[in-house]
């Protein structure tokens, strides 16, 4: 997991990851200033080391002198061995009100040069001659990671075409969306897609995926929107991929802070939604895709800082992207987490969480445990306090009562994580339940719902589950599909087990294994 330095005012923002020669390259924003695009590398997609920053905001008067926003890195199809980074820039000229797209190039992914731009510094036309001369001298510098040469022949920065998209501050929200570029290539044709907005319709329903086609190297022509659902304010950080014979369009939506997707059999045909098109649950945002030797990976950042998503962000482990036989795409646990799994913990016997009870229930054949709670609530836990662990089991629920998982639970206060499972409807809800400060009255009971998710079950009442508690990272899967994925620092250690409310449960094939603690501490950037 990757984050900025603890206790600083910086946070990781939108991410993009590229895999090359056995190394994952992470490019990401740094909030709240947006002054540069950072670069980090990893061999395992878990531990990261920052290297030199890739790009910086431009010099005063340039098109990107205020902020840098979301980027996308891809091979240059016109010059093998070179890389291109398309990125979003904001200018002080409009106080950041208009978003534009620029490009930088690199021969090694580490040293970047901004492409020339067709731009004019309109500041101070009546400055004193000495000031004008100083500005001229200061501008005489080679292309770099912060400076773009000026060229009237350049197509950059790219701006929205008023024929199809909101393009001026007089329209819509008086704030021009044209950001989050992503380059897609198929055969000898290439397209740049981005978050944009159509010109007509209700103001907060104009969000679309805009598109420009690359007609020659570095030259782009505007095309009509690739997809306009007619429902959202913006479709942020769009991605376009093809798996087998189907195209998938993935985007993040501020309305519910989820990552969703659409599909079509042919570009130009309507984009359709499945009954469940949520790729990652609420709180996961700005999803980006990269391909390594094992297939597609989904990356994103998760915010612990509330709905504004500008502080206390982390980048959790990626998820592996899978396509079902029916054409839906799902995320599964990143196989790299297996390297952190350690010794197996004895699970043939469980005991009630209630300390006054001395009962112990054991599996007669070592594989199956029958648990019951006729009324009220009862939790059953395995022995030993655990920090990080992976729990796998097959659950068969009998009756119409409730069940769930408890983990990192304190044996005295019962404070910990409670994962409610509705195995009939296919609903999971994770809560942090704890005791507040003494004397705080009604506020002593602290109950927070952290995340919810759902799945469709072919066998209601039964589920094969997996829970991963890996440092602050928490992940829950059903039948291999990731349902919940989040980060939360509330509880770090405690008992693991299950609970029942007026129900009976059969636990089979239980496997509980310790996991190593993530070695990347919050101070990793300076001391790790």
Query: Between the first and last Cα atoms, what is the distance in angstroms?
Result: 13 Å
Low-confidence stretches: none
Number of continuous helical runs: 2
Structural class: mainly beta
- Average the pLDDT over all residues and give the rounded result: 92
Estimate percent helicity: under 10%
What is the count of β-strands?
34
What is the radius of gyration?
Answer: 26 Å
Global morphology: elongated
Strand-residue proportion:
over 45%
Question: Secondary structure elements and their pairing?
Answer:
Layout: E1 11-20, E2 23-31, E3 36-42, E4 49-56, E5 67-75, E6 83-90, E7 99-106, E8 112-114, H1 129-138, E9 179-186, E10 189-197, E11 207-216, E12 219-227, E13 236-243, E14 246-253, E15 258-264, E16 278-280, E17 284-292, E18 295-303, E19 313-314, E20 319-323, E21 329-333, E22 341-345, E23 349-352, E24 361-362, E25 368-381, E26 389-398, E27 402-409, E28 416-422, E29 427-435, E30 445-454, E31 462-470, E32 473-478, E33 481-487, E34 495-515, H2 524-527
Antiparallel strand pairs: 1-2, 2-3, 3-4, 5-6, 6-7, 7-8, 9-10, 10-11, 11-12, 13-14, 14-15, 15-16, 17-18, 18-19, 18-20, 20-21, 22-34, 23-24, 23-25, 25-34, 26-31, 26-34, 27-28, 27-34, 28-29, 29-30, 31-32, 32-33
Describe the fold and architecture.
The protein is mainly β and 528 residues long. It is 3% helix and 50% strand. The chain contains two helices and 34 strands. The chain has helices at 129-138, 524-527; strands at residues 11-20, 23-31, 36-42, 49-56, 67-75, 83-90, 99-106, 112-114, 179-186, 189-197, 207-216, 219-227, 236-243, 246-253, 258-264, 278-280, 284-292, 295-303, 313-314, 319-323, 329-333, 341-345, 349-352, 361-362, 368-381, 389-398, 402-409, 416-422, 427-435, 445-454, 462-470, 473-478, 481-487, 495-515. Strands 22, 23, 24, 25, 26, 27, 28, 29, 30, 31, 32, 33 and 34 form a 13-stranded antiparallel β-sheet that branches. Strands 17, 18, 19, 20 and 21 form a five-stranded antiparallel β-sheet that branches. Strand 13 (236-243) and strand 14 form a beta hairpin. The longest helix has 10 residues, at 129-138. The radius of gyration is 26 Å and the shape is elongated.
């Amino acid at each position: 997991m990757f984050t900025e330095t603890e206790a600083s005012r910086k946070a990781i923002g939108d991410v993009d990851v590229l895999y090359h020669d056995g190394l994952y390259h992470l490019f990401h924003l740094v909030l709240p200033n947006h002054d540069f695009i950072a670069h980090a590398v990893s061999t395992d997609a878990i531990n990261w080391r920052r290297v030199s920053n890739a790009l910086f905001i431009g010099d005063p008067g340039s098109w990107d002198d205020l902020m840098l926003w979301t980027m996308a890195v891809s091979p240059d199809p016109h010059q093998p061995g070179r890389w291109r980074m398309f990125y979003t820039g904001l200018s002080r000229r409009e106080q950041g009100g208009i978003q534009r797209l620029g490009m930088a190039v690199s021969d090694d992914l580490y040293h970047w040069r901004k492409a020339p731009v067709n731009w004019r510094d309109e500041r101070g036309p009546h400055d004193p001659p000495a000031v004008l001369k100083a500005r001229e001298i200061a501008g005489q510098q080679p292309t770099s990671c912060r400076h773009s040469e000026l060229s009237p022949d350049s197509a950059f920065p790219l701006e929205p075409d008023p024929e199809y998209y909101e393009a001026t501050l007089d329209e819509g929200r008086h704030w021009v969306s044209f950001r989050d570029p992503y380059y897609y290539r198929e055969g000898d044709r290439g397209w740049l897609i981005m978050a944009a907005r159509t010109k007509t319709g209700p103001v907060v329903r104009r969000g679309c995926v805009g598109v420009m086609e690359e007609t020659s190297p570095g030259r782009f022509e505007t095309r009509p929107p690739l997809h306009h659902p007619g429902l959202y304010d913006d479709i942020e950080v769009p991605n376009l991929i093809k798996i087998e014979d189907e195209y998938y369009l993935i985007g993040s939506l501020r309305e519910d802070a989820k990552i969703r997707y659409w599909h079509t059999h042919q570009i130009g045909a309507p984009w359709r939604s499945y009954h469940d098109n949520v790729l990652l649950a609420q709180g996961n945002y700005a999803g980006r895709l990269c391909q390594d030797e094992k297939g597609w990976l989904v990356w994103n950042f998760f915010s612990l800082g509330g709905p504004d998503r500008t502080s206390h962000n982390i980048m959790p482990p990626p998820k592996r992207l899978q396509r079902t036989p029916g054409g839906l795409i799902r995320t599964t646990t990143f196989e790299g987490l297996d390297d952190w799994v350690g010794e197996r913990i004895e699970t043939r016997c469980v005991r009630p969480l209630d300390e006054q009870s001395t009962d112990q229930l054991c599996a007669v054949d070592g594989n199956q445990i029958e648990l019951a709670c006729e009324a009220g609530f009862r939790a059953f836990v395995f022995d030993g306090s655990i920090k990080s662990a992976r729990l796998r089991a097959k659950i068969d629920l009998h009756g119409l009562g409730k069940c769930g998982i408890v983990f990192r639970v304190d044996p005295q206060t019962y404070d910990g994580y409670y994962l409610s499972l509705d195995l009939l409807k296919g609903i999971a809800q994770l809560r942090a339940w704890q005791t507040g400060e003494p004397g705080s009255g009604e506020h002593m009971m602290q109950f927070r719902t952290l995340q919810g998710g759902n799945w469709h079950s072919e066998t209601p009442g039964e589920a094969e589950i997996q829970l991963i508690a890996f440092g602050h990272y928490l992940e829950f899967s059903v039948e291999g599909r990731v349902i919940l994925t989040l980060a939360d620092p509330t509880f770090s250690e405690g008992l693991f087990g299950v609970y029942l409310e007026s129900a009976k449960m059969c636990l089979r094939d239980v496997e509980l294994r310790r996991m190593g603690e993530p070695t990347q501490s919050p101070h990793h950037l300076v001391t790790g």
